[in-house]
Amino acid sequence: MDFSLPQECSSQEDPPQECSPPESPALESLLQKIPQQACPPLACPPLACPPRPVKVVYGTRNTFWHAESLPTFHEICLHSSQCPKKHWLYTMFHGTTYAAAVEIIKHGFKQSADGMLGRGVYVSRDIHKAMKYPLNNDPRKVVLKLRVNVGKVKKIDYPNHPLQKTWNAHGYNTAWVPPHTMNPSGQEEDCVFNPQRIKVIDIVHGNPDDVKKLKRLLHHH
To answer: What CATH number has the domain spanning 27-219?
Structure first.
């Protein structure tokens, strides 16, 4: 059984690759033997948290987070250039304002009406990218640490990709822009169509007082 790091996803011209986790009757017993490794509390440096096979039993929206209940579950932080696996849970980040963060924690994310990848919620594995947002001089910027069930992922890695804004209509749940491809910043970015695939798990950057207030609010939600 191969537990090596995932390879790059296919581009549009390549044969389809779903990057699915390995399947085996002995998978669960093998996972029990793999030592737990926790993610760093703030960022996810390259290879700090090697991916472990945690497969989501997918059915309704309530099973987006089924893997969290497994004894073998732990956070997975992918390097920006690593291809995500179908239906796996990954740590990502979202930069926003304090006021918007309060609404997100209380009521969940809402789709952006448009953007480079069309409708959806824009997030990134790269905390440094998230720290740039929003792109204004708001003094109360914060960064939310997220857990994301990526579902079925489409790699969008060049400008004017035929599915750049229509990937969801073709059955994909997340669009992924690898670093140094089509994003002007050169940084990795993801667009998740369904906001219910994203949950806030921590607040990792911002004014200390704002972070403390948001953590308290998150604890009560």
So the answer is: 3.90.228
